[in-house]
Fold each of these.
Amino acid sequence: VQLVESGGGLVQPGGSLRLSCAASGFTINSYQMRWFRQAPGKERELVADITSIGASTIYVASVKGRFTISRDNAKNTVYLQMNGLKPEDTAVYYCNALWTRVYWGQGTQVTVSS
C-alpha cells in the first residue's frame, strides 16, 4: 500500500504548481482524501479535503480561492492545484487517505521563493 506524491519544486511567488498523489495497493474510491502540509518548526496542518465521490471540498482559510483539490478515482489519483503561491506556502505537502484505515504519503517539498 502506497501513496506517492509528486509535482513539488521551487517556484516564484505568484506561480503555480500541481501536486499529484498516486495510490497503489488499494483503491481510493471509498476514501476521504486530504492534503496536509508541514512547514519547518510548525505543526502539520490540513490544507484541503475532498469526499469520496468528490461532492464536497473544504480548505484551510489561508488557501481558499488559490488551491483546488480534485480526484480521479479511475486513475486512483488525487490532485492539488496551487495558484498564486506565496512564500508562506513553503512546506512539505503530504497526501492522506482516510476511511477504515489511514494512509500517508512520504511528502513532496514545495518552496516558494524569488
Amino acid sequence: QVQLVESGGGLVQAGGSLRLSCAASGGTTRTYTKAWYRQAPGKEREFVARIYRSDDSTVYADSVKGRFTISRDNAKNAVYLQMNSLKPEDTAIYYCRYTGWADYWGQGTQVTVSS
C-alpha cells in the first residue's frame, strides 16, 4: 500500500519562504508524475505545480509562477515544493499527488502566511 507523507508546512510571514517535502513508502511510484495541490478554507482544491515523469518538465499555476519551484528526487521517491515570496493568499493545506498506474494523495500539510 502506497503512503505519501508531506512535511515542511508551518507559519511564515509574508515574503518568507518554505520548502515542502513529500515522500512515498510502499509500491513502485518512482517514475510517477508528481504534483502539488492546495485547498484554502472555504475553497475547492486547486492545482499548484506538476513535474512530469517523462522528461521532468514542469507546469505551474499562474498564481505561483516565478515564486514556487517543484523538483523531484527519484532515488528518494520524493517531490519538493520550494515556495518563495509567500503571500497571505498562499495560506492553505498543501497536498502532494503521485499519478501513474494509480493515483495517490498525501494527507496534507498546513501552510499559513501572515500579513
